[in-house]
Amino acid sequence: MSLLQTLSLFLITILNSNWVCSTTEFVFNANFNSSNLLLFGDATIQQRHSSSSSSNDNNNNKILSLTNDSTTFSMGRALFPSKIPSLNSTNTSFSTSFIFSISSVNGFQPGHGFAFLFTPSAGLAGASSSQHLGLFNCTNNGDPDNHVFAVEFDVFKNQEFQDIDDNHVGLNVNSLTSLASEPAGYWVGEEEEEEDDDMEFKKIELKNGVNYQVWIDFFDSRINVSMAPAGKRRPRRALISESLDLSDVFLDEMYVGFTGASGQLVESHRILAWSFSNTNFSIGDALVTRDLPSFVAASEGSRGLVVGVSVGCVVVVCGLLVIGFLLLVRKRRKTNKDEEIGEWERDYWPHRIGYKEIHKATMGACCGS
């Protein structure tokens, strides 16, 4: 068979099998802007400077903020502007990684959370704030026609959706009731060769302002979700690993991005970096984890230390003033006592001349004044 015949047969095979190869891959390292994202609701791009960045560098440290932390019941969504194709095939796969920060806001109790999502349509139609996380509302929650897959990062325990606690990660398909969820954290081991049973689980607090990196992989109908503080290596053991059929959820094309919401409870939801690929499962390595803006507030321990030092200084100063006053009083009493004429001296003359009288009579000359 000639080379031309071989190539022709190969092309015919591809066409007959309806095989479509379309790769989508992108990386944002704190360089978001309105041209590479679709923004809805309160989602905005914020300019932030790290301690090592130049104030003239306008391209770096542009991060995504999903909610408005100056008001209640805020909701925002950000999507990659192009739809991801061919997601409903049997060999659907994707890998994404992102760095986020959830931080408290002065004057408010923190809540509710955000989610990474696939959605068939842009905009916020059919979504509500507060406990609905900008994903669904009270009427369409649980509707299979939503065609939404999400991984939620929730800091409010909602009994309505059977949340396990107020600090968890969950897998959501068309509903806010998670198919699987785990307390936020990551697995660590002293040695790479350690068995999973020998690894230690470290809990983390989602809303403490720390920058966390998340890895989400979907391959061969299995979803794996891992997370760790930004800068640490990807944990060998996933936080969530579940068999999941998304063939009835994904359409031919889907938007991918983030959504977040607050309610009467308010907090900040920020995405600092994001990578995505439907072919490259090492795309998360492209994220830069150093020199990122920090949103960690002063800890209770730090505030306590400052208050303690301040109170201690006040106590020391007051103590010194009291001691000085007592020493002065004591000195005056001693001087007066030394100059007092005793009863036995009253019957004899001349009496002693006091120090004050000498000082007054000599205009202080005897004392070197």
Automatic annotation (TrEMBL):
The keyword Manganese does not apply. Residues 1-22 form the signal peptide. It comes from the Eukaryota. Coiled coil: none annotated. The chain crosses the membrane at residues 305-329. It holds the Pfam family Lectin_legB. Keywords: Kinase, Lectin, Membrane, Receptor, Signal, Transferase, Transmembrane, Transmembrane helix. Residues 26-280 form the Legume lectin domain. GO terms for molecular function: carbohydrate binding; kinase activity. Belongs to the leguminous lectin family. This is Putative L-type lectin-domain containing receptor kinase VII.2. It comes from Morus notabilis.
